[in-house]
Amino acid sequence: MKKTILVFSAALILLVWLPACRHSSSAQSTALRPAPDFSLTDITGHPLRLSDYRGKVVILDFWATWCEPCKQEIPHFIDFENKYSAQGLAIMGISMDDSEPPVRDFQKQYKMNYPVAVGTSQLADQYGGILGLPITFIIDRQGRILARHIGATNISIIESEVQKALAQAP
Amino acid sequence: MSHPSFPHRLFVRNFVLIFFLFAVFALSPAPLALAADSTNMKTLTAEELLHLLSSPAKPLLFQVGSHMLYMQAHIPGSEYIGAGNTPDGLQRLNARVSKLPKKTAIVLYCGCCPWSHCPNVNPAYDALTQLGFTNVKVLYIAGNFGSDWADKGYPVAKGE
After folding, report:
1. How confident is the model over B54-95, as pLDDT tens digits?
2. How far B102 CA sits from the closest chain A CA (Å)?
3. Topology of domain A25-167, per CATH?
4. Which among A13, A98, A151 is the nearest to B68, CB-wise?
5. What is the ipTM of this complex?
6. In a domain, B52, yes or no
7. Owning domain of residue B148
8. Domains of chain A: which residue ranges?
9. Which residues of B fall within a CB distance of 8 Å from A151?
10. What is the SS3 assignment for A15?
11. How many other C-beta atoms can be found within 10 angstroms of the C-beta atom of residue B142?
């Protein structure tokens, strides 16, 4: 009887835990491939070109105004901009909204302190497809992709990766 | 000092077991995601949809997420309708189904973000049921369209 209960409990726990793992965000190794360069115009009209940020650590955040997990991450990125920009961190928000007006409103409402542009499907393809949000890339000072996080990610993981990348010499 | 009786120990052990299982359920994100199913939406899995699409009684398949997502990847044969959380998307949905019989089989899908956070499928589903459609289902996409459809090797089309 005891064994039955134990086996039943273990099976139940696995049944609960395995789908839970599937829902958590995932970081995928990209073997330090170069981050594809892109050139966009941000929503304030300024050019936004990734290669202009060579020598900096970049958080490239694909997000959208209607994406709840994205909204949870953005305040942390605003904090990072304040905390780490002097050490060489740059953050770029690439909105995957279908139009610009809601993005402008959102940037004002959230007081986003880093450049934001509306992305394109071509840019999404360059980055392996943005088939779900948020997706966050950490790019090192040499312009290589250090990490790709799919889904809402524990912000301490991103911060730790950023700190390690910032510690490396330009 | 007396030892606890056998029934008492059994009670304590069962209590600990139940408490542990409850804690696992409470802390796991899975039940939260499943809680999104507590709406009255009828859902189907990817495998069920693929089976349906290969049968003669194919349903109409509407993507009710963003156009940006549809452009990158969508289920072949599906129509872009527009985001279900926007007035424009719902207007397009209304227009698309206005001349269809109420028994038409329709499957909605999005996959923009995790199921429990998707802003689009619920409003689109509600709109169709309020219009009187009786055979509407939503494709259950747990995480997103990339992880739960494209990365699994299911058929994908690109572009308009």
Report:
1. 999 899 999 999 999 999 999 999 999 999 999 999 999 999
2. 30
3. Glutaredoxin (3.40.30)
4. A98
5. 0.79
6. yes
7. 39-152
8. 25-167
9. 114, 143-144
10. helix
11. 18
